[in-house]
Amino acid sequence: MNRRRSNIEIIADMLRVGENGAGKTEIMYSANMSYAQIQKYLGFLLSHGFINKVKVGNPAVTYQVTDKGGELLKNINYIVEVLEFRNGHNGNGA
Predict the structure, then answer these.
(1) How far apart are CA 15 and CA 1, in angstroms?
(2) Label partner for 73 (CA 20 to 30 A): which of 5, 7, 13, 61?
């Protein structure tokens, strides 16, 4: 089934890619995002302290998930797991 991802799913995908540090292009391709989306979501994640911009060269920039961002990702994963279980997607066809 093809459906659009929610904002939370997009944020979680970005945080997963950035856990070990990643550039904008890597995040964009790995999280399957457009340039407009990456700009919007990077701005949000940076302004809320979920990721940091780390300069690794000139002009290379890497984005690194902060502790706060790691906590957010853990919480998103937990909520998704609970919701899937409650919706009967617990692997046994219930």
Answers:
(1) 24
(2) 61
